[in-house]
Amino acid sequence: MLERIPPQSSDIERCVLGAMVIDPDSIGIAIEMLSDVDFYKPEHAMIYNALVRLYGNDVPVDQLTLIEQLKRDGNIEHIGGELTISGLYRETASSANIVQHARILKDKTLKRKLISVANTVMGRAYEDKSEAEELLMELESMTSQAWSNRQESYTSVSAKVHDVVNRLEDINERPNRLIGINTGISMLNGVTGGWQSGRLTVLAGKTGGGKTALALEFASQSARNGIPVAIFSLEAPAEEVTTRLVQSNAPFDMMKIYNQKLTADDWSVINDGAAKVHDYHIYVNDQSGLSITELIAKAKRLKRERNIGLVIVDYLQLVEGIGYNREQEVASVSRGLKNMAMNMQLPVIAISQFSRAADQREEPRLSHLRESGAIEQDADTVIMLYNRHETKGEGEFHDYGEDVYNEFVRELIVKKNRGGKSGDRILLYWKPEFTRIGELGYDMQKYLDR
Questions:
Q1: What is the pTM of this model?
Q2: Looking at the structure, do residues 254 and 343 belong to the same domain, yes or no?
Q3: 365 in the same domain as 301
Q4: Is residue 169 part of a domain?
Q5: Do 212 and 146 lie in a common domain?
Q6: Over 50: is that where the pLDDT of 445 sits?
Q7: Pair (121, 181) in one structural domain
Q8: Alpha-carbon distances, residue 437 vs 9, 27, 217, 333 (angstroms)
Q9: What CATH number is attached to the domain comprising 103?
Q10: pLDDT tens-digit map of 55-104
Q11: Cα gap 104→418, rounded to integer Å
Q12: Domain limits at 263?
Protein backbone atom coordinates (compact mmCIF):
# COMPACT_ATOMS: atom_id res chain seq x y z
CA MET A 1 0.00 0.00 0.00
CA LEU A 2 1.41 3.38 -1.06
CA GLU A 3 2.13 5.89 1.69
CA ARG A 4 -0.26 8.82 1.57
CA ILE A 5 1.49 12.19 1.29
CA PRO A 6 -0.07 15.11 3.22
CA PRO A 7 -1.34 18.07 1.16
CA GLN A 8 1.62 20.13 -0.07
CA SER A 9 3.03 21.74 -3.20
CA SER A 10 6.77 21.96 -3.66
CA ASP A 11 6.30 24.03 -6.82
CA ILE A 12 4.16 26.67 -5.07
CA GLU A 13 6.63 26.82 -2.19
CA ARG A 14 9.44 27.53 -4.67
CA CYS A 15 7.31 30.18 -6.40
CA VAL A 16 6.79 31.99 -3.09
CA LEU A 17 10.49 31.81 -2.20
CA GLY A 18 11.43 32.94 -5.70
CA ALA A 19 9.11 35.96 -5.41
CA MET A 20 10.73 36.83 -2.08
CA VAL A 21 14.28 36.75 -3.49
CA ILE A 22 13.51 38.91 -6.56
CA ASP A 23 11.11 41.41 -4.97
CA PRO A 24 11.73 42.95 -1.51
CA ASP A 25 8.05 43.95 -1.20
CA SER A 26 7.07 40.29 -1.53
CA ILE A 27 9.05 39.46 1.60
CA GLY A 28 6.82 41.70 3.71
CA ILE A 29 3.68 40.23 2.14
CA ALA A 30 4.91 36.68 2.76
CA ILE A 31 5.81 37.42 6.40
CA GLU A 32 2.28 38.77 7.04
CA MET A 33 0.62 35.72 5.54
CA LEU A 34 2.99 32.83 6.22
CA SER A 35 5.35 31.25 8.74
CA ASP A 36 7.98 28.54 8.33
CA VAL A 37 5.41 25.82 9.20
CA ASP A 38 3.60 26.65 5.95
CA PHE A 39 6.52 25.15 4.00
CA TYR A 40 6.22 21.38 3.90
CA LYS A 41 9.79 20.78 2.71
CA PRO A 42 12.32 21.49 5.51
CA GLU A 43 14.83 23.03 3.09
CA HIS A 44 12.22 25.53 1.92
CA ALA A 45 11.45 26.48 5.54
CA MET A 46 15.18 27.10 6.09
CA ILE A 47 15.35 29.44 3.08
CA TYR A 48 12.23 31.27 4.25
CA ASN A 49 13.72 31.80 7.73
CA ALA A 50 16.93 33.12 6.22
CA LEU A 51 14.96 35.63 4.13
CA VAL A 52 13.01 36.72 7.21
CA ARG A 53 16.25 37.33 9.13
CA LEU A 54 17.67 39.45 6.32
CA TYR A 55 14.44 41.43 6.13
CA GLY A 56 14.34 41.92 9.90
CA ASN A 57 17.93 43.14 9.95
CA ASP A 58 17.23 45.52 7.04
CA VAL A 59 19.80 43.78 4.84
CA PRO A 60 19.17 44.03 1.04
CA VAL A 61 18.23 40.62 -0.34
CA ASP A 62 20.08 39.20 -3.29
CA GLN A 63 21.63 35.89 -4.18
CA LEU A 64 24.87 36.55 -2.33
CA THR A 65 23.37 37.92 0.91
CA LEU A 66 20.91 35.00 1.05
CA ILE A 67 23.69 32.44 0.57
CA GLU A 68 25.77 34.12 3.28
CA GLN A 69 22.83 34.08 5.70
CA LEU A 70 22.24 30.38 5.05
CA LYS A 71 25.91 29.74 5.75
CA ARG A 72 25.70 31.64 9.03
CA ASP A 73 22.64 29.57 9.94
CA GLY A 74 24.58 26.37 9.12
CA ASN A 75 21.93 25.40 6.57
CA ILE A 76 23.57 25.92 3.19
CA GLU A 77 24.33 22.24 2.74
CA HIS A 78 20.94 21.17 4.08
CA ILE A 79 19.12 23.15 1.38
CA GLY A 80 21.20 21.59 -1.43
CA GLY A 81 23.99 24.15 -1.75
CA GLU A 82 24.33 27.43 -3.60
CA LEU A 83 22.89 25.96 -6.81
CA THR A 84 19.49 25.74 -5.12
CA ILE A 85 19.47 29.51 -4.59
CA SER A 86 20.63 30.14 -8.13
CA GLY A 87 17.77 27.96 -9.32
CA LEU A 88 15.21 30.13 -7.50
CA TYR A 89 16.44 33.19 -9.40
CA ARG A 90 16.31 31.38 -12.75
CA GLU A 91 12.86 29.87 -12.22
CA THR A 92 11.03 33.02 -11.03
CA ALA A 93 9.80 35.39 -13.71
CA SER A 94 7.47 37.52 -11.59
CA SER A 95 6.22 38.09 -8.04
CA ALA A 96 2.76 39.13 -9.24
CA ASN A 97 0.97 36.08 -7.79
CA ILE A 98 2.62 36.06 -4.35
CA VAL A 99 -0.70 36.64 -2.48
CA GLN A 100 -2.57 33.87 -4.29
CA HIS A 101 0.36 31.47 -3.89
CA ALA A 102 0.59 32.27 -0.16
CA ARG A 103 -3.13 31.53 0.25
CA ILE A 104 -2.65 28.16 -1.42
CA LEU A 105 0.12 27.30 1.06
CA LYS A 106 -2.05 28.39 4.01
CA ASP A 107 -4.87 26.17 2.73
CA LYS A 108 -2.57 23.17 2.53
CA THR A 109 -1.19 23.91 6.00
CA LEU A 110 -4.73 23.96 7.41
CA LYS A 111 -5.46 20.60 5.77
CA ARG A 112 -2.28 19.12 7.28
CA LYS A 113 -3.32 20.45 10.70
CA LEU A 114 -6.77 18.92 10.33
CA ILE A 115 -5.21 15.56 9.44
CA SER A 116 -2.99 15.80 12.53
CA VAL A 117 -5.96 16.73 14.74
CA ALA A 118 -8.02 13.85 13.37
CA ASN A 119 -5.17 11.39 13.90
CA THR A 120 -4.64 12.60 17.47
CA VAL A 121 -8.31 12.23 18.39
CA MET A 122 -8.55 8.90 16.55
CA GLY A 123 -5.56 7.58 18.51
CA ARG A 124 -7.11 8.65 21.81
CA ALA A 125 -10.41 7.09 20.79
CA TYR A 126 -8.68 3.76 20.13
CA GLU A 127 -7.01 3.97 23.56
CA ASP A 128 -10.54 4.13 25.03
CA LYS A 129 -9.37 6.06 28.11
CA SER A 130 -11.47 9.20 27.60
CA GLU A 131 -15.19 9.93 27.45
CA ALA A 132 -16.57 10.46 23.93
CA GLU A 133 -17.87 13.92 24.88
CA GLU A 134 -14.41 14.93 26.10
CA LEU A 135 -12.90 13.82 22.78
CA LEU A 136 -15.53 15.78 20.85
CA MET A 137 -14.77 18.93 22.86
CA GLU A 138 -11.05 18.42 22.32
CA LEU A 139 -11.65 17.99 18.59
CA GLU A 140 -13.76 21.15 18.48
CA SER A 141 -11.13 23.11 20.42
CA MET A 142 -8.24 21.98 18.22
CA THR A 143 -10.10 22.60 14.95
CA SER A 144 -11.22 26.03 16.15
CA GLN A 145 -7.61 26.86 17.00
CA ALA A 146 -6.44 25.68 13.59
CA TRP A 147 -9.07 27.87 11.91
CA SER A 148 -8.42 30.97 14.03
CA ASN A 149 -4.72 30.86 13.15
CA ARG A 150 -5.71 31.10 9.49
CA GLN A 151 -7.61 34.38 9.78
CA GLU A 152 -6.31 37.79 8.76
CA SER A 153 -4.59 39.53 11.68
CA TYR A 154 -5.71 43.09 10.95
CA THR A 155 -8.73 45.15 9.96
CA SER A 156 -8.75 48.35 7.97
CA VAL A 157 -9.93 51.27 10.11
CA SER A 158 -11.66 52.78 7.08
CA ALA A 159 -13.74 49.62 6.78
CA LYS A 160 -14.88 49.95 10.41
CA VAL A 161 -15.64 53.69 10.64
CA HIS A 162 -19.16 53.31 9.23
CA ASP A 163 -19.92 50.51 11.70
CA VAL A 164 -18.67 52.60 14.62
CA VAL A 165 -20.82 55.60 13.70
CA ASN A 166 -23.89 53.37 13.30
CA ARG A 167 -23.20 51.80 16.69
CA LEU A 168 -22.88 55.20 18.38
CA GLU A 169 -26.14 56.32 16.79
CA ASP A 170 -27.81 53.16 18.06
CA ILE A 171 -26.51 53.74 21.59
CA ASN A 172 -27.65 57.37 21.50
CA GLU A 173 -31.21 56.27 20.69
CA ARG A 174 -31.39 53.81 23.60
CA PRO A 175 -33.28 55.10 26.66
CA ASN A 176 -30.54 53.93 29.06
CA ARG A 177 -27.57 54.78 26.79
CA LEU A 178 -26.09 51.34 27.48
CA ILE A 179 -23.35 49.97 25.22
CA GLY A 180 -23.62 46.44 26.54
CA ILE A 181 -25.79 44.26 28.78
CA ASN A 182 -27.54 45.94 31.71
CA THR A 183 -25.67 45.10 34.93
CA GLY A 184 -28.73 45.86 37.07
CA ILE A 185 -26.72 48.51 38.96
CA SER A 186 -27.32 51.97 37.49
CA MET A 187 -24.09 53.51 38.78
CA LEU A 188 -22.05 50.57 37.44
CA ASN A 189 -23.79 50.97 34.08
CA GLY A 190 -22.72 54.61 34.12
CA VAL A 191 -19.08 53.68 34.66
CA THR A 192 -18.78 50.66 32.36
CA GLY A 193 -21.60 51.12 29.85
CA GLY A 194 -22.83 47.65 30.84
CA TRP A 195 -21.23 44.28 30.17
CA GLN A 196 -19.57 44.76 26.80
CA SER A 197 -18.79 42.08 24.23
CA GLY A 198 -15.16 41.03 24.08
CA ARG A 199 -14.35 42.30 27.57
CA LEU A 200 -13.19 40.37 30.62
CA THR A 201 -14.44 41.65 33.99
CA VAL A 202 -12.92 40.33 37.21
CA LEU A 203 -15.09 40.49 40.34
CA ALA A 204 -12.88 40.09 43.40
CA GLY A 205 -13.41 39.98 47.14
CA LYS A 206 -12.84 38.06 50.35
CA THR A 207 -14.31 34.64 51.02
CA GLY A 208 -17.96 34.92 52.08
CA GLY A 209 -18.10 38.56 51.06
CA GLY A 210 -20.97 38.23 48.58
CA LYS A 211 -19.08 37.77 45.27
CA THR A 212 -21.14 34.81 44.08
CA ALA A 213 -24.39 36.45 45.21
CA LEU A 214 -23.53 39.54 43.17
CA ALA A 215 -22.56 37.44 40.15
CA LEU A 216 -25.90 35.64 40.36
CA GLU A 217 -27.66 39.02 40.47
CA PHE A 218 -25.83 39.89 37.26
CA ALA A 219 -26.97 36.58 35.76
CA SER A 220 -30.59 37.14 36.83
CA GLN A 221 -30.59 40.66 35.39
CA SER A 222 -29.30 39.40 32.05
CA ALA A 223 -31.82 36.56 31.98
CA ARG A 224 -34.66 38.96 32.81
CA ASN A 225 -33.61 40.97 29.74
CA GLY A 226 -33.80 37.86 27.56
CA ILE A 227 -30.04 37.25 27.34
CA PRO A 228 -29.06 33.60 28.00
CA VAL A 229 -26.25 33.11 30.55
CA ALA A 230 -23.69 30.35 31.08
CA ILE A 231 -22.38 29.86 34.63
CA PHE A 232 -19.32 27.69 35.19
CA SER A 233 -19.56 26.86 38.88
CA LEU A 234 -16.40 25.02 39.89
CA GLU A 235 -17.07 25.25 43.62
CA ALA A 236 -20.82 24.72 44.08
CA PRO A 237 -23.12 22.13 42.44
CA ALA A 238 -25.85 23.23 40.03
CA GLU A 239 -28.57 22.56 42.62
CA GLU A 240 -26.96 24.96 45.09
CA VAL A 241 -26.58 27.62 42.41
CA THR A 242 -30.26 27.18 41.49
CA THR A 243 -31.26 27.36 45.17
CA ARG A 244 -29.41 30.65 45.54
CA LEU A 245 -31.11 32.01 42.43
CA VAL A 246 -34.52 31.09 43.83
CA GLN A 247 -33.56 32.53 47.20
CA SER A 248 -32.45 35.87 45.77
CA ASN A 249 -35.58 36.13 43.63
CA ALA A 250 -38.04 35.17 46.42
CA PRO A 251 -36.55 36.42 48.81
CA PHE A 252 -36.73 33.78 51.51
CA ASP A 253 -34.47 32.56 54.30
CA MET A 254 -33.93 28.94 53.30
CA MET A 255 -32.49 28.15 56.74
CA LYS A 256 -36.03 28.36 58.17
CA ILE A 257 -36.84 24.98 56.65
CA TYR A 258 -34.34 23.30 58.98
CA ASN A 259 -35.86 24.88 62.09
CA GLN A 260 -39.61 24.98 61.55
CA LYS A 261 -42.41 23.80 59.32
CA LEU A 262 -43.06 26.29 56.55
CA THR A 263 -46.43 28.03 56.29
CA ALA A 264 -48.57 28.49 53.21
CA ASP A 265 -47.31 32.07 52.97
CA ASP A 266 -43.71 30.81 53.06
CA TRP A 267 -44.40 28.40 50.21
CA SER A 268 -46.10 31.14 48.24
CA VAL A 269 -42.92 33.24 48.41
CA ILE A 270 -40.73 30.27 47.45
CA ASN A 271 -42.96 29.27 44.54
CA ASP A 272 -42.99 32.84 43.27
CA GLY A 273 -39.18 32.91 43.22
CA ALA A 274 -39.01 29.46 41.62
CA ALA A 275 -41.44 30.53 38.89
CA LYS A 276 -39.24 33.50 38.04
CA VAL A 277 -36.07 31.39 37.89
CA HIS A 278 -37.85 28.71 35.85
CA ASP A 279 -38.22 31.20 33.00
CA TYR A 280 -34.56 32.26 33.06
CA HIS A 281 -32.31 30.93 30.31
CA ILE A 282 -29.38 30.23 32.64
CA TYR A 283 -27.21 27.16 32.06
CA VAL A 284 -24.98 25.89 34.89
CA ASN A 285 -21.94 23.66 34.38
CA ASP A 286 -20.75 22.37 37.76
CA GLN A 287 -17.93 20.10 36.56
CA SER A 288 -15.01 20.40 38.97
CA GLY A 289 -11.41 20.27 37.78
CA LEU A 290 -12.37 21.93 34.50
CA SER A 291 -9.43 22.95 32.31
CA ILE A 292 -9.41 26.27 30.46
CA THR A 293 -9.50 24.36 27.15
CA GLU A 294 -12.56 22.36 28.23
CA LEU A 295 -14.27 25.48 29.56
CA ILE A 296 -13.81 27.32 26.26
CA ALA A 297 -15.04 24.31 24.27
CA LYS A 298 -18.17 24.03 26.45
CA ALA A 299 -18.82 27.78 26.21
CA LYS A 300 -18.56 27.63 22.41
CA ARG A 301 -21.05 24.80 22.29
CA LEU A 302 -23.48 26.76 24.49
CA LYS A 303 -23.02 29.78 22.26
CA ARG A 304 -23.85 27.67 19.23
CA GLU A 305 -26.74 25.70 20.76
CA ARG A 306 -28.22 28.17 23.29
CA ASN A 307 -27.01 31.53 21.96
CA ILE A 308 -25.57 32.59 25.33
CA GLY A 309 -24.69 36.26 25.65
CA LEU A 310 -22.83 36.26 28.98
CA VAL A 311 -20.38 33.86 30.66
CA ILE A 312 -19.73 33.80 34.42
CA VAL A 313 -16.85 31.77 35.90
CA ASP A 314 -16.93 31.01 39.65
CA TYR A 315 -14.11 31.12 40.29
CA LEU A 316 -11.01 31.83 38.18
CA GLN A 317 -8.40 30.19 40.43
CA LEU A 318 -10.25 26.84 40.31
CA VAL A 319 -9.93 26.54 36.53
CA GLU A 320 -7.01 24.29 35.58
CA GLY A 321 -4.41 26.07 33.46
CA ILE A 322 -1.24 25.18 31.60
CA GLY A 323 2.25 25.87 32.92
CA TYR A 324 5.17 24.71 35.02
CA ASN A 325 4.13 26.69 38.09
CA ARG A 326 1.04 28.26 39.63
CA GLU A 327 1.72 31.71 38.18
CA GLN A 328 1.90 30.32 34.65
CA GLU A 329 -1.25 28.25 35.15
CA VAL A 330 -3.29 31.25 36.31
CA ALA A 331 -1.83 33.35 33.50
CA SER A 332 -3.00 30.78 30.94
CA VAL A 333 -6.49 30.82 32.45
CA SER A 334 -6.86 34.62 32.51
CA ARG A 335 -5.46 34.89 28.98
CA GLY A 336 -7.78 32.08 27.84
CA LEU A 337 -10.84 33.82 29.30
CA LYS A 338 -9.88 37.11 27.65
CA ASN A 339 -9.34 35.40 24.29
CA MET A 340 -12.67 33.61 24.69
CA ALA A 341 -14.46 36.92 25.29
CA MET A 342 -12.89 38.43 22.17
CA ASN A 343 -13.28 35.41 19.89
CA MET A 344 -16.87 34.67 20.94
CA GLN A 345 -17.78 38.37 21.09
CA LEU A 346 -19.50 38.27 24.46
CA PRO A 347 -18.72 39.56 27.96
CA VAL A 348 -17.04 37.27 30.51
CA ILE A 349 -17.23 37.83 34.28
CA ALA A 350 -14.67 35.88 36.32
CA ILE A 351 -14.85 35.77 40.11
CA SER A 352 -11.45 35.95 41.79
CA GLN A 353 -10.26 35.38 45.34
CA PHE A 354 -8.07 37.78 47.23
CA SER A 355 -4.63 36.66 48.28
CA ARG A 356 -3.76 36.25 51.96
CA ALA A 357 -2.17 39.68 51.92
CA ALA A 358 -5.69 41.09 51.71
CA ASP A 359 -6.56 39.63 55.11
CA GLN A 360 -5.12 42.80 56.57
CA ARG A 361 -7.86 45.24 57.45
CA GLU A 362 -7.27 47.71 54.69
CA GLU A 363 -8.99 48.75 51.49
CA PRO A 364 -8.30 46.20 48.75
CA ARG A 365 -5.81 46.90 45.96
CA LEU A 366 -5.15 45.30 42.59
CA SER A 367 -2.11 43.62 44.11
CA HIS A 368 -4.48 41.73 46.46
CA LEU A 369 -5.73 39.63 43.55
CA ARG A 370 -4.45 36.09 44.02
CA GLU A 371 -1.70 35.52 41.39
CA SER A 372 -2.49 39.12 40.44
CA GLY A 373 0.02 39.89 37.68
CA ALA A 374 -1.63 38.14 34.76
CA ILE A 375 -5.20 38.73 35.99
CA GLU A 376 -4.63 42.46 36.38
CA GLN A 377 -3.06 42.63 32.92
CA ASP A 378 -5.71 40.61 31.05
CA ALA A 379 -8.82 42.04 32.71
CA ASP A 380 -10.53 44.99 31.04
CA THR A 381 -12.42 45.81 34.24
CA VAL A 382 -11.69 44.89 37.86
CA ILE A 383 -14.39 45.49 40.47
CA MET A 384 -13.87 44.67 44.15
CA LEU A 385 -16.35 44.07 46.96
CA TYR A 386 -15.28 45.68 50.21
CA ASN A 387 -16.78 45.63 53.71
CA ARG A 388 -15.67 48.94 55.19
CA HIS A 389 -17.47 48.03 58.43
CA GLU A 390 -14.67 45.55 59.19
CA THR A 391 -12.03 48.30 59.05
CA LYS A 392 -14.20 50.94 60.71
CA GLY A 393 -12.76 53.28 58.11
CA GLU A 394 -14.06 56.72 57.37
CA GLY A 395 -16.85 56.78 54.79
CA GLU A 396 -16.79 58.39 51.38
CA PHE A 397 -20.60 58.68 51.12
CA HIS A 398 -21.39 61.24 53.81
CA ASP A 399 -24.83 61.98 52.34
CA TYR A 400 -26.02 58.58 53.51
CA GLY A 401 -25.38 59.33 57.15
CA GLU A 402 -22.94 58.04 59.74
CA ASP A 403 -24.54 54.58 59.95
CA VAL A 404 -23.92 53.75 56.30
CA TYR A 405 -20.97 51.46 57.00
CA ASN A 406 -22.69 48.72 58.94
CA GLU A 407 -22.35 44.98 58.46
CA PHE A 408 -25.08 44.85 55.79
CA VAL A 409 -23.48 47.32 53.39
CA ARG A 410 -20.76 46.64 50.82
CA GLU A 411 -18.75 48.96 48.63
CA LEU A 412 -18.22 47.99 45.01
CA ILE A 413 -14.99 49.70 43.98
CA VAL A 414 -14.03 50.02 40.30
CA LYS A 415 -10.28 49.45 40.51
CA LYS A 416 -9.60 49.14 36.78
CA ASN A 417 -11.67 50.18 33.79
CA ARG A 418 -9.84 49.98 30.48
CA GLY A 419 -10.88 52.85 28.24
CA GLY A 420 -12.97 54.47 30.98
CA LYS A 421 -12.96 55.99 34.44
CA SER A 422 -11.78 54.02 37.47
CA GLY A 423 -11.95 54.70 41.20
CA ASP A 424 -15.73 54.99 41.44
CA ARG A 425 -17.41 53.57 44.57
CA ILE A 426 -20.91 52.13 44.56
CA LEU A 427 -22.85 51.25 47.70
CA LEU A 428 -24.65 47.89 47.80
CA TYR A 429 -26.90 46.29 50.39
CA TRP A 430 -26.10 42.72 51.47
CA LYS A 431 -28.76 40.38 52.88
CA PRO A 432 -26.81 37.17 53.60
CA GLU A 433 -29.81 35.16 54.80
CA PHE A 434 -31.40 35.73 51.37
CA THR A 435 -28.04 35.62 49.50
CA ARG A 436 -29.28 38.88 48.05
CA ILE A 437 -27.20 41.87 47.07
CA GLY A 438 -28.11 44.97 45.10
CA GLU A 439 -27.75 48.70 44.66
CA LEU A 440 -28.35 50.78 47.76
CA GLY A 441 -30.70 53.76 47.55
CA TYR A 442 -30.93 56.73 49.88
CA ASP A 443 -33.76 55.03 51.73
CA MET A 444 -31.39 53.06 53.95
CA GLN A 445 -34.01 51.64 56.28
CA LYS A 446 -35.81 49.94 53.39
CA TYR A 447 -32.84 47.66 52.89
CA LEU A 448 -31.42 47.29 56.35
CA ASP A 449 -34.49 46.55 58.44
CA ARG A 450 -34.36 43.00 59.71
A1: 0.63
A2: yes
A3: yes
A4: no
A5: no
A6: no
A7: no
A8: 62, 58, 7, 28
A9: 1.10.860.10
A10: 877 788 888 999 999 999 999 999 899 899 888 888 888 888 899 999 99
A11: 39
A12: 177-448
Residue 277's closest CA among 235, 233, 241? 241
**Is residue 171 in a domain?**
no
Per the structure, how many domains does the chain have?
2
> Do residues 202 and 139 both lie within one domain?
no
Q: Are residues 141 and 244 located together in one domain of the fold?
A: no
Residue 89 falls inside a structural domain: yes
> What confidence category does residue 391 fall into, taking pLDDT thresholds of 50, 70 and 90?
low
CATH number at residue 358: 3.40.50.300
The pLDDT tens digits of the residues spanning 200-250 come to: 999 988 877 788 888 988 998 898 889 999 999 888 888 888 888 888 777
Domain co-membership, 254 together with 395: yes
Query: Side-chain half-sphere of 20: how many Cα atoms within 13 Å?
Result: 29
Give per-residue pLDDT as tens, 340-352.
898 889 999 999 8
Residues 34 and 48: beta-carbon distance below 8 Å:
yes
245 and 188, same domain (yes or no): yes
Q: What is the mean pLDDT of residues 377-399?
A: 68
